Each structure stands twice: as structure tokens, then as C-alpha cells.
Amino acid sequence: MPDMPETKATRTERPVAMTIAGSDSGGGAGIQADLLTFDAYGVHGTSAVTCLTAQNPESVSKVIPASAEFVREQMLQVTRYFNVPVVKTGMLYSEEIIGTVASFLEDHPAIQAVVDPVMVATSGALLLQDSAIESLKARLLSRAELITPNLDEAGVLAGKRPGDILAMIETGRRLQGDFGCAVLMKGGHLEGEEVLDVLVDGSNEPAVFKYRRLPELNTHGSGCIFSAAIAAALARGDTMSAAVADARAFLHHCMLAPKALAGNRFIDPSAARKVRTSSLSDLASRQSPTDSQGRPLSVDSD
User: What does pTM read for this prediction?
Assistant: First the structure.
């Protein structure tokens, strides 16, 4: 990074984050959603594009991966100039790209990594080659500060898909033990009027976040926006638990103020741009898990 005289402007400059992910030609997910989310947080967004995709919210018709060498050069070129404290990963697609990202993080141990282990699009399209799953588990997840699997991805990583809140907590603890990082279990695929997400971060009790399901909303890009918001909050200096709580509240706010496109309602990261992110945490709650009647569930700490 070029030497610059310290001024009031440089002392108060924007934090920076980097997304390492695929491009969504429909604009609702991938690096497009990540960069909008970073901007809403007041974080300067940089990127390393792993794949070009031809897609819209209903389907992915073609994927063209970047070479691992080019992905590495993008990451290096960004960090040669910018101070990047946090990266988030999304669609990595191949064993070669995963290995390159893992090596980059090993060479930059001060960078925190939020890893969204993207495997399959909502439309069913394959976003991670089968041959890359073992590389993801062996090389990358152990380098993460946080991983954010949905229930299907957690099932691939743990060997069994969790089917309720207690199983989510149990699986989160197992993955934390396997990979040595915090685990955010995303429960949007569970049935019910509430969406439950669980953060297992090594504290005595897991954090359970509850929000009313919005069935009329197209949730394309929700996982990208959630993990990008966590990365942005970490980049501005939040603790992990505070970052996750704030990001979950941010996502919910964006869901409550959707944008209308092509006859559907989509999540809008720009909706929260004018909202003070410090106030968003008021929408989030850290609480012990309860059953459908609101009664506390017994959580085995072993």
C-alpha cells in the first residue's frame, strides 16, 4: 500500500472486506449481493471472482470457473494495496480454487475468514464439484473463524442432516469440534412459521435467533447477504457474537423492505443503507432454545 501522510481522513477511513465468490448474472446473490451488503455497512468491498455464472433466481444454465492462478492473483492484488482484515467466501466450485484460497489464508494468518460452504443453488444447480468437498473439509474449514452451513450443507459436512433445533445444536457442536471454528447453523429449510438460526461459538449456551418466516418473499441470495453482513461487521471491529446478531437483524430488516422485480419480492441489501447498523442489534436476541410452546429445551452440554 502506498505511504500516505496521516490525516483526519486516513484515521477515519472506511474498513475493507473482500468477497471471494462467484458472479450472479441475475444480481441477487454472489459477489453482487456481497458488495451491496458491504456498502450498506459502510465497508469498502473488494472481490476475487471465482466463477462466472449464467443464472437468474430460477436457474443456473452455465458455470465458467476462473483459473486458480487468476483467483490467487486477484486476492494478492487486493491485499497488496488494501488492509483487509476479513474475507468471506461463497461459491468456490473446484478443488483447485479451494486449495488456492486455503493457501492464501495460510499465508495471511491475520485475516479472518467467514466461510459460507456453498454447494447447491436454491434452484438445484451444483455450485461445488463433488471432488471438492473433501478439500473443503480438509483444507479450508479449519482456517475459518466462522462457517455458515444451511441444513443440507451441514448434512454433507457432518454426515446427517439435522431435522430440528436440538439436532442443529448437536451438529453445530460437532462441526465446531471437527474444524475448531464457530458454526452458524442456518435453519431456513426447517418447516414452521419461525426461522431458527443457531450460533455455536464455544460459549456455555448456543445463541438461537428467531424470526417470523415471510413466505411471500423470494429468498434468493439470503445466505450470501447473511455471511457478507457478518464479514462486514467483523471488519468494522465487532466481536463474533455481536457480528452474527447484528447481521441476522440486518438480513431481517432487508427482508421486511423487499424490492419488487419481475413480479416477485426479493431481499434488498440497500434497504438498510440508511439505517444505523448499531440499532439493528435491537432486533436480534440471544436466547436459549424453546419448543413450539415457548418452553425451554434441555440442551446437553456434553
Answer: 0.88
